Amino acid sequence: MDIFSICTAAAWDIEFKQHEQENAISDLESGKIIFCPQLSFNIDPSERMLFIPYLINKKTKNISFNLKKNHLKGIKTDQKHQVCLKLMLARFSEQANCFMSSLFAQYTNSLTIGRTSYRPVQIRNRKTSARKDDRRLHVDAFAANPNQGHRIVRLFCNINPYGEHRVWHIGESFEEVAQRFLPKINKPIPGSAKFLYWLGITKSIRTHYDHIMLKIHDSMKLDMDYQKQVKYKEISFPPGTSWIVSTDQVSHAAISGQYLLEQTFYLPPTAMANPKSAPLHILEKLSGHCLT
Ligand code: SIN
Ligand code: FE
Asked: Is the per-residue pLDDT at 108 higher than 90?
């Protein structure tokens, strides 16, 4: 399968034709990356001060932004940088939302917006634990934010001002990943989901689906033989380009690059054109159980 689908849109407030919307949905759901080579984010001259890696608190990978609460997490610098970053991320989030609502209009109001993030750290030599190391192939699953079967769709935009590409590896299909790792995953300890929620470790109940997705995420990253042996394709996103991908489905690793914007969206599988391609349905088919 071709891993790319090209979208030639050059503005965030564009209207898409019906066949473009249908193709985008079919490509996204089948695990393609929708690459938009002309979709760039304009940086205001006053925002150039944000191109410094030490904006970030060392303990976190990204600076995340909650638009509704106007709240930044993971930043350690002064008020001036915070105000500037909030304005830039709010603008990016609104533009990304406008673009996605138009390209995926057929999801009607089911595509909901999540966190926005700014990733100012060079990933090539970043020191981090194996579980947090996004240079290893994985599918996304959130430990504290169970998504209970909902899809994770992300829009990325490389804003590197020095011409540096974002380099990714793309691994095998979700079905292949699931077939390989699912048989090794034990059931959650009875009562553990409620306990984690009660302790405040998870923000909602971790369903059996979330348990499996987290275990797949961890097992992939911790298995160095798998990382070395599995087939992958290397792709490179130049600055001034954007791309959209279902990161819960597409096995990916971010190998190098610095200064990236990302907007997360969630989608219930019931809103999909082909719900059978959702990780939830693939895992239910393979396990023979209902997982949410
Ligand atoms: C990831 O989702 O694993 C990281 C993507 C990136 O930062 O390029
Ligand atoms: Fe990821």
From this structure: no
